Amino acid sequence: MSEILKIKGLVKRYKELIAIDHLDLSVKEGEIFGLLGPNGSGKSTTINCILSLLEYDKGEIEIFGKPMSPKAYEIKKQIGIVPQDVAVYDSLTVYENIDFFCGLYIKDKETRRKYVQEAIDFVALNDFVKFKPNKLSGGLKRRLNIACGIAHKPKLIFFDEPTVAVDPQSRNKILEGIEQLRNNGATIIYTSHYMEEVEQLCDRILIIDKGHTIAEGTVDELKGMIKKSEIITIEVAGLDNTALDMVRESNNVYSVSYENNQLKVEAGAGKHNVIDIVNLLQDKGYKMKKIFSEQPTLNDVFLELTGKQLRDE
Questions:
Q1: Bridge-based pairing state of the strands 204-209 and 32-36
Q2: How far apart are CA 162 and CA 143, in angstroms?
Q3: Residues 219 and 165 in one domain
Q4: Are 186 and 174 in contact (CB under 8 A)?
Q5: 212 shares a domain with 259
Q6: Alpha carbons 258 and 202: distance in angstroms, whole number
């Protein structure tokens, strides 16, 4: 697959603050690429630099194999943006909004009419084309936002938190739509704080913090970077401190908690972690009711790599 987006050595400073610190990034054609980071990590600054909305101090940005710049209009025509905040005109109907944004790129009226209708079909807004945005639910507004960003059939699409504050049905519709866009040939850059969405959608993920890369890879590759590889939960009554200490001293175990008859063990890589702990408890005469073993989630990876402290916007 060819590279759709390539960033090399990107640096962006705000006086003494280094917002982006020699960032490298590569997105291949046809990928859904996750760009993650805590608040203030540099995600928005990176995207604004990519789109030439911000000047940067150093580095190279290429899109479709060509240098990106504020005047690279032929490149910009092939980019779609679905921002976190719904960005449509309240005075226009659903149809008029989509037609307006599509018309920024597509001048031929017949082609534009076709593209607008296809965008309406894609986000399932046919029953609402004459509605103005203030008459739409939150989920419908999000779908309108998407239609406005993709109606001109861009090859590279940025989705910034597209499912914020929507109901589960609308969220599923949006996520299915993003996968369909990729299947239709688009390349997607996706940012979200919903880790389960990123884990479901993204082929590769870049996690940044303080403006530089801290991890990159597939979901499985990222999970392999952290100490936690298995979470074991056992329902067992009456564990005393001696038994808990024995569990703590078991091979690969690095975290043990016990509350309301629930023993939770976080363990590193090992083929027999569950068996070892179960055998230990059985040897001491404890009776177990339920036993669960789970792999770490992307959320576990994110918190271990970026820390658990609160971040300001």
A1: parallel
A2: 9
A3: yes
A4: no
A5: no
A6: 35
Site of tokens 């971040």: 311
Q: Answer yes or no: is 308 within a domain.
A: no
* CA-to-CA separations, 277 to 29, 155, 250, 252, in angstroms, rounded: 46, 52, 8, 11
Which residue in 306, 309, 298, 303 sits closest to 205, CA to CA? Answer: 298
Q: What is the pLDDT of residues 127-167, one digit of tens each?
A: 999 999 999 999 999 999 999 999 999 999 999 999 988 88
Query: What single letter denotes the amino acid at residue 250?
Result: S
* Same domain for 102 and 236: no
Confirm whether 248 is domain-assigned. Answer: yes
Q: Does 168 share its domain with 109?
A: yes
Contacts of 210 (CB under 8 A, 6+ apart): 18, 21, 41, 42
**Number of domains the chain is built from:** 2
> Is the Cα dihedral 106, 111, 116, 119 positive or negative?
negative
* pTM, full prediction: 0.87
- Residue 82 structure tokens: 């679905």
Residue 280, CA distances (Å) to 19, 152, 156, 283, 294 in order: 50, 63, 54, 5, 20
Q: H-helix or E-strand containing 235?
A: strand 230-236
